[in-house]
Specification:
By secondary structure, the protein is α/β, with parallel strands linked by helices. It is built from 15 helices and ten strands. The chain has two domains: 248 residues, P-loop containing nucleotide triphosphate hydrolases (Rossmann fold, 3-Layer(aba) Sandwich); 102 residues, no CATH class. The N terminus and C terminus are likely disordered.
């Protein structure tokens, strides 16, 4: 586990290695204080983001992550005035209006309803091109191209405000992607989406990144949902300061998330309850990259059986009846994390996660044995 020494966590393999390209975005000792506030919201931000990277900016509410995004698209300081120290470079520019920066940064807002300007989805996607006086034939072709990229070509004639949350998000993405901008900034894209729709949104963002090669910056506190697909780095903010800048494997294996109030992924909770230690070499950043030994898989299986039995009995027991204790053999817990059964309230969720882990473990075991049967 990575120890917190007081300095931000860093993925040194990425930062120290020689890079063939210059940063697309660079903060140097950047601080910002809103005009109406006494103290800065952002403190001494030092951050480099390179072309083609997928970055997650995470942190608890009030940590400054949305303000950081507003600095990138020019809302700070032009719409939200205040005092800036240090420097910020975006696409080679050290300053620029919201309009000028929109040539480099396409923003999908948390409230997509506030972003729509067209009477139909197609008109809304075409808005930027229409403002520049592009020919009708060109606009129609590019609107259809952008809509197909995000899967919104089936409702171009529909009013955007009548679409579902996921459909609105697709239309908003098409509207900013239509000009082939190099940076896609998404401010809490999962805020209005249920978990299932959120996963589809993250998959869509991943597809866009792969097809266009644009730099993607996601501002979100729902860490587990975002990490469902590949992320290059996680930048963790707390009280306006960057306290971690590292790979998903490193951030999930560390204790930094819990310290700032960001929930760790549920499968990590399940593993720890089963007495399986979380280390970087297990690649815990995503469930589908997780590496488990045969012994750990067996430990998870035994814990899962115990937790399931305990949960079933707890669910069937009336409040005024004594609860029955189930004696089932379990593997010895790790020295640092006791293997305790889940409470009935979360037992179902964790048991489902454990089932997925076991299935993945079986697949790993078969591959090790050289059999695909």
């Amino acid at each position: 586990m990575i120890e917190n020494t007081g300095a931000p966590l860093k993925d040194t393999s990425m930062i120290d290695a020689p890079l063939a390209t210059a940063p697309l975005i660079e903060f140097i000792d950047y601080s910002f204080r809103y005009r109406a506030q006494k103290h800065p919201t952002l403190h001494n931000i030092n951050l480099k983001i390179y072309p083609g990277e997928k970055i997650l900016i995470a942190g608890p509410s009030g940590s400054g992550k949305s303000t950081l995004g507003s600095c990138l698209n020019g809302l700070v300081p032009y719409n939200y005035p205040g005092e800036i120290t240090g420097s910020l470079t975006v696409g080679g520019r050290t300053s620029g209006s919201v309009f000028e920066l929109s040539e480099f940064v396409g923003t999908v807002l948390q409230d997509t309803d506030g972003q729509f300007v067209g009477l139909s989805s197609g008109e809304d996607i075409a808005f930027a091109l229409e403002n520049k006086g592009r020919p009708q034939a060109e606009m129609k072709a590019r609107v259809l191209q952008a809509a197909k990229l995000v899967g919104a070509d089936g409702y171009l004639a529909h009013p955007p405000l009548r679409l579902s949350g996921g459909q609105k998000q697709r239309v908003s993405m098409a509207g900013v992607l239509i000009e082939n901008i190099p940076i896609l900034l998404l401010d809490e894209p999962l805020a209005a989406l249920d978990p299932s729709t959120g996963k589809r949104a993250i998959a869509l963002i991943d597809d866009i990144a792969q097809q266009t090669g644009c730099t993607v910056i996601i501002i979100e506190h729902r860490l587990e949902d975002v990490l469902w697909k590949h992320i290059d780095r996680v930048v963790l903010l707390d009280e306006g300061r960057i306290i971690a800048d590292c790979t998903p494997d490193e951030i999930v294996a560390s204790d930094m998330l819990g310290k700032v109030g960001v929930r760790r992924p549920l499968y990590v909770l399940a593993l720890e309850r089963a007495g399986v230690g979380i280390t970087v070499d297990k690649r815990p950043g995503r469930l589908d990259t997780l590496q488990l030994t045969d012994g750990e898989i067996e430990r998870i299986r035994r814990w899962s059986e115990t937790a399931s039995a305990a949960g079933d009995i707890a669910a069937r027991t009336e409040p005024n009846e004594p609860k029955t204790t189930v004696a089932t053999e379990t593997a010895a817990p790790s020295p640092t994390t006791p293997a305790t059964p889940a409470t009935p309230a979360i037992n179902f969720v964790i048991t489902a996660i454990i089932g997925t882990l076991l299935l993945m473990g079986y697949a790993q075991t078969r591959v090790k044995a050289g059999s695909l049967e």
